[in-house]
Amino acid sequence: MTDHRNKTPQRCCRSFRKSLSDGDCVLLGGSTGSLLYEKGIFINRSFDEVNLSQPDLVSKIHSDFIAAGAQIIGTNTWGANSFKLKAFGLENKFREINFAGAELARKAALNQTWVAGTLGPLGVRIEPWGPTSLDEARDVFKAQAEALIKGGVDLFIMESFADLYEIQQAIRAVRELGDLPIIAMMSVNEEGHSLYGTEPEWYIRKLDEWGADVVGADGGNGPTPMLELLKKFKSSTKKPIILCPNAGQPRMVDGRLIYMASPEYMGEFARQAFLKGARLLGGSSGTSPAHIKIMAGALRQAKAFDQVEIKPHEIIEHTLVHPTTVPRVQQSNWAKKIADGEFVVCMELLPPKGLETEKIIERSEICKKHGIDAINIPDGPRASARMSSLATACIIEREVGIESILHYACRDRNLLGIQSDLLGASGLGIKNILCITGDPPKMGPYPNATAVFDIDAIGLVNMVTRLNTGYDLGGSSIGRHTSMSVGVGANPVAIDLEKEKSRFRYKVEAGAEWAITQPVFDSESLFRFLEFSSQFRIPIIAGIWPLKSIRNAEFMANEVPGVFIPNNVLERMRKCKTAEEQTQEGILIARELIEEIKSSVQGLQISAPLGMVDFALKLL
User: Fold this and answer.
1) Which of 254, 276, 306 delimits the end of a domain?
2) Would you say 154 and 17 are in contact if contact means Cβ atoms under 8 Å apart?
3) Structural domain containing residue 73
4) CB atoms < 10 A from the CB of 520, how many?
5) Closest Cα to residue 613, out of 383, 345, 225, 290?
6) Which of 306, 338, 361 is the last residue of a domain?
7) What is the pLDDT of residues 83-136, one digit of tens each?
């Protein structure tokens, strides 16, 4: 047997497998075919032949995916086997088309990105479903794979297979030519079955057994069903898992098939999929460089949080002194009510986008009039650029005379800047602080902004606690100590709940005095978290978000990290036909939840959607 591999694939083969063994997460490019279609190459032409007739167009697509953040690009050869090319009279050019496809991808990759030879189904039925024999199918795959190897691919991607017998022949064909890595995916329906009806646990086991290095699925009805499918895959294999969903469900618009999932939606899918254990992600039909760019941001976000999990609380833990000098009942009115066991309520209001503070002042005055204990001021929520939360808090306290709770995120400042801000906040009279890690910039409208993350929320609590004892980060006396009441965030529905519990424990040990949860829509999840947190004996304030509309509910469910809305809640909102009915149902859902949980928590943080304080106050 002849070994057709050249030196470049050998080198890249080892590095790709090493990346897998090191536990790296990898992002693939999206759909070349969808972009060719958008650029005027319609289905009456062979997309694969464009490698020969319009190579610059294919090269540009590869380059766009690489620029968006793809670490693997697939060759434009999904339909470049002799059976499919025969329909266009091109069966005698299959070697030329495949070689050109690999060469174009290799040149675009510039040795910085892995190149995967793409193999798709033959377009004919093979035995036992049709007249084409297994051996004949394997020979066709082998001839295509041979041309791709000569063109310089590093690995193979087998995608959109419906028939398990057929993908088995593709795997065998590649294995007969050498030992390049194989990514094998079955095309699935909404239930996760292959399009021939094979159950997910079975086809994943067989792909693993037949020697694929990475196993998974592509296609389907969009990202969300893939997350449920991931659980079944993880129970069936130890191999790295790949998910490549379509960009939502397609619709026909002006004669064109348009995939409706936004880049942001695909980005949130990527974030959740990485957290739940997927190792490789990409996109199938409808996935553009814009989708891949946001998904790459989700990958960087996951890595960023992994990087700040260990170092942050090690940095300053050696200076930690837990007791505060000022008793909690003297720190602030908010702290006193909590320490006295009273029920507290705060209202979350976003800082203004510009300089106009009149609205937030007016809204704060309404809150004060209705007995709200404090105004909660987020710090650049979802990595947005707004007025400084510190400045906003000072303005509210000065103009309205109601206490604020200052959110402070670690994202934008280094250790020196954080200490300066904390001292400044205390000097300006801010008494309550909620310590958070912060959303990475890639989630927001300015994805090229630089994140700092010198510390995370745990390290920040350490820092505030230390300042409350009268010492700075380096252990030097600051003279008069600060006296801030220290709160932290908690997420009862975190994807990795054990990790969330571990971090919560660290926050309490660092000196957290109370906690506010993410918006809660599922009381059972909250009760489970309260059962865990009861051992720490710190008050929990439940986050409440009254849903304004079904659109608001779906946005919260799909786009806001850390929020889970049960299907029964979404269904209740969908059944309401008018906007007014949806609003009333949202209030009713929130009131029911409050009644259910209020005896188990020490307070509520109520969010005012779009600043609609009067709407939010209906809960009380």
Assistant:
1) 306
2) no
3) 23-306
4) 26
5) 345
6) 306
7) 999 999 999 999 999 999 999 999 999 988 999 999 999 999 888 777 889 999
